[in-house]
């Protein structure tokens, strides 16, 4: 951007604005003992820590609208005394410097300027919302100093006539409770409307939520109508000009509702006879819960009584009633029971209330010693029984197989014995078949002679 040109800066009431004067330092002038020195010589080198000036305006108001420019300050300019020594440099006071002859010292000057607003000089002590962001140093590097370089030096930049025009737009939300919030009620239709009183600075207003545009209006208003639920609580809504993004305002939506117990609460809470226990409940409520009551509704009914001592802590609830998946901010309520007796193991109703209404939740306190098997324990028990049945079946099958195998083995052994016996009988018959009986009568007395024939 060319020096000397006008720059327009836009801001919104209540915001913080930075006015930047780029390339403001046109030239630099240095004097030695009141005589201007030529900085074009190779003996000198000038360097600035910044080439621009920034002015910060905090909590901008309509009164800050107008033209701003910086200019050379009037009055005294601080300088530095330079001493040149051919031996060593003793300690010097403030605003004094010392250099060894032949060295190249660097003298540092703090630049200064004045600020003008609408042709009036700004008194930084009185205009407390206007600040110089930081200091700018001007360094004069002197090469190969000699005794003739001693003296009192003053260096300062010459400033260009650049002007910065601050244009302050006023944006707001209808029914805005303060600068940062707007209110709605759960289940009741509401309209969020952003408006501007300075439409001459506006191209078109847009409403955004979570970085996404949700409504586009004109240079005067933009609005959106919807029915809020508790997931909209603490949502951020931004109203911004579609061209000048510095013209913007943002509010947080506060959704009020009566207390609600989310489904993640446990309706069975357990304790042990004679021991203390802590009841825990999750709840969504805005404004926060004010009163809590508990009553017995089981076999021994007792009228509800107010709980004076309880702990309430903020918690992120996985509330899913409105297809919410990221969780919403709620509370956890802790109620301490000092000692459980036999009559405490029954059904209860807890009631939480705020100024918008009340909600109930039903639960049971059960004795740990009389609890039926939990689902996990039942699963474990079924697994053990299944393993036992499998082992038993395996043992029975193994036993049956063993018995069958044993019977088969015994049968095979009997067959072998029978076959051996038959073989022996066969051999015996074979031998007998080769035996010849012959009978001879001697003196009419029969005599039997047995002879054996060879096969």
From TrEMBL:
Look up keyword Transmembrane and say if it applies.
yes
**Any idea which UniProt keywords this protein has?**
Membrane, Transmembrane, Transmembrane helix
Does Transmembrane helix appear among the keywords?
Answer: yes
Q: Where are the transmembrane segments?
A: 380-404
> What superkingdom does the record give?
Eukaryota
Q: What is this protein called?
A: Ig-like domain-containing protein
Species per Swiss-Prot/TrEMBL record: Mytilus coruscus
């Amino acid at each position: 951007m060319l020096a000397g040109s006008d720059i327009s800066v836009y801001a919104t009431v209540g915001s913080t604005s930075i006015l930047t004067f780029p390339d403001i330092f046109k030239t630099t002038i240095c004097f030695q003992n009141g005589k201007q020195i030529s900085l074009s010589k190779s003996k000198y080198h000038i360097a600035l820590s910044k080439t621009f000036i920034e002015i910060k305006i905090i909590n901008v108001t309509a009164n800050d609208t107008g033209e701003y420019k910086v200019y050379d300050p009037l009055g005294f300019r601080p300088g530095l005394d330079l001493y040149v020594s051919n031996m060593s440099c003793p300690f010097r006071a403030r605003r004094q410097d010392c250099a060894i002859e032949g060295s190249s010292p660097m003298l540092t000057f703090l630049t200064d300027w004045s600020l003008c607003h609408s042709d009036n000089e700004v008194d930084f002590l009185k205009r407390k919302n206007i600040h110089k962001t930081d200091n700018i140093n001007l360094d004069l590097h002197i090469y190969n100093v000699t005794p003739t370089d001693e003296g009192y030096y003053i260096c300062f930049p010459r400033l260009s006539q650049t002007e910065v025009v601050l244009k302050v737009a006023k944006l707001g939300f209808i029914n805005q409770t303060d600068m940062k919030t707007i209110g709605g009620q759960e289940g009741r239709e509401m309209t969020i409307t952003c408006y501007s009183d300075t439409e001459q600075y506006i191209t078109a207003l847009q409403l955004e939520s979570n970085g996404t545009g949700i409504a586009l209006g004109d240079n005067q208003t933009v609005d959106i109508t919807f029915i809020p639920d508790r997931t909209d609580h603490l949502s951020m809504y931004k109203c911004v000009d579609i061209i000048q993004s510095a013209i913007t305002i943002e509010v947080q939506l506060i959704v009020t509702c009566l207390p609600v117990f989310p489904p993640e609460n446990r309706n069975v809470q357990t304790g042990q006879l004679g021991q203390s226990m802590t009841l825990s409940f999750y709840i969504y409520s805005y404004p926060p819960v004010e009163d809590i009551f508990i009553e017995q509704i089981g076999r021994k009914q007792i009228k509800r009584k107010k709980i004076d001592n309880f702990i309430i802590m903020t918690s992120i609830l996985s509330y899913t009633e409105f297809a919410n998946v990221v969780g919403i901010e709620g509370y956890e309520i802790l109620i301490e029971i000092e000692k459980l007796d036999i009559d405490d193991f029954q059904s209860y109703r807890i009631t939480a209330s705020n100024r918008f209404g009340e909600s109930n939740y039903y639960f049971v306190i059960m004795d740990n010693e009389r609890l039926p098997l939990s689902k996990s324990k039942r699963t474990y028990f079924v697994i053990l029984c299944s393993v036992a049945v499998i082992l038993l079946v395996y043992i029975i099958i193994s036993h049956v197989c063993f018995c069958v195998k044993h019977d088969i083995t015994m049968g095979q052994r009997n067959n072998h014995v029978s076959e051996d016996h038959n073989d022996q009988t066969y051999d015996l018959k074979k031998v007998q078949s080769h035996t010849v009986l012959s009978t001879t009568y001697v003196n009419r007395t029969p005599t039997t002679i047995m002879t054996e024939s060879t096969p």
